[in-house]
């Protein structure tokens, strides 16, 4: 079986997202995959954090004769096992995580400071309950 390592387009219109996959070459580009080997999100601002690859599995498939497409070959060379940009990738991912943590904390703080809607008082429900008991109690006495 001839296998290629290529990118499968996911996402939506004007918001591409790719998965790096080992695919039989006779399958369509968006078809069933043998194994997913990583992901690539071109819209992430940190260039080195865009590609996340599983280097061990990529090496496994390449040992068995899988050929990467030119774009995937570039990503493997940079971010694969022993790649040229692996250190920069780790730093970029950490920076991204710190930004996300800060934005999450800011959102939580904003939610905590937001004016809360007044809670419905429990008194009307409590008043309705004794009235219902009186009505049912009155029916039992009449019987």
Strand composition percent: 15-25%
Global morphology: elongated
Helix run count:
4
Instruction: Report the major sheet.
Output: 5 strands, mixed
Number of strands: 5
Derived structural class:
alpha+beta
Number of domains: 1
CATH class membership: Alpha Beta
- Described by its quaternary structure, the protein is single chain
Considering the protein shown, what is the CATH homologous superfamily?
Ribosomal protein S16
Kindly report how far apart the N and C termini lie.
85 Å
Model description:
Strand 1 (3-12) and strand 2 form a beta hairpin. This protein is 47% helix and 22% strand. It is of the alpha+beta class. It has one domain: S16 Ribosomal Protein, Chain: A (2-Layer Sandwich). A five-stranded mixed beta sheet has the order 4-3-2-1-5. The chain is elongated, with a radius of gyration of 29 Å. It contains four helices and five strands, in the order E-E-E-E-H-E-H-H-H.
SSE blueprint:
Layout: E1 3-12, E2 15-24, E3 35-40, E4 51-53, H1 55-63, E5 67-68, H2 70-79, H3 86-113, H4 123-142
Parallel strand pairs: 1-5
Antiparallel strand pairs: 1-2, 2-3, 3-4
Task: Give a brief description.
It is built from four helices and five strands, in the order ββββαβααα. The chain has 143 residues and is α+β, with helices and mostly antiparallel strands. It has one domain: Ribosomal protein S16 (S16 Ribosomal Protein, Chain: A).
Q: Keyphrases for this structure?
A:
143 residues, alpha+beta, S16 Ribosomal Protein, Chain: A, 5-stranded mixed β-sheet, elongated
């Amino acid at each position: 079986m001839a296998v290629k390592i290529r990118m499968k387009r996911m996402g939506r219109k004007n918001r591409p997202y790719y998965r790096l996959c080992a695919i039989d070459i006779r399958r369509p580009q968006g078809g069933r995959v043998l194994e997913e080997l990583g992901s690539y999100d071109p819209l992430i601002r940190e260039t080195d954090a865009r590609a996340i690859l599983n280097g061990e599995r990529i090496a496994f498939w390449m040992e068995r004769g899988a050929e990467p497409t030119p774009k995937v070959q570039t990503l493997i060379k940079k971010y694969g096992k022993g790649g040229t940009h692996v250190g920069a990738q780790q730093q970029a991912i950490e920076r991204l995580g710190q930004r996300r943590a800060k934005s999450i904390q800011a959102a939580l703080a904003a939610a905590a400071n937001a004016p809360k809607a007044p809670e419905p008082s429990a008194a009307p429900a409590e008043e309705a309950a004794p009235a219902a008991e009186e009505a049912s109690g009155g029916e039992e006495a009449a019987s």
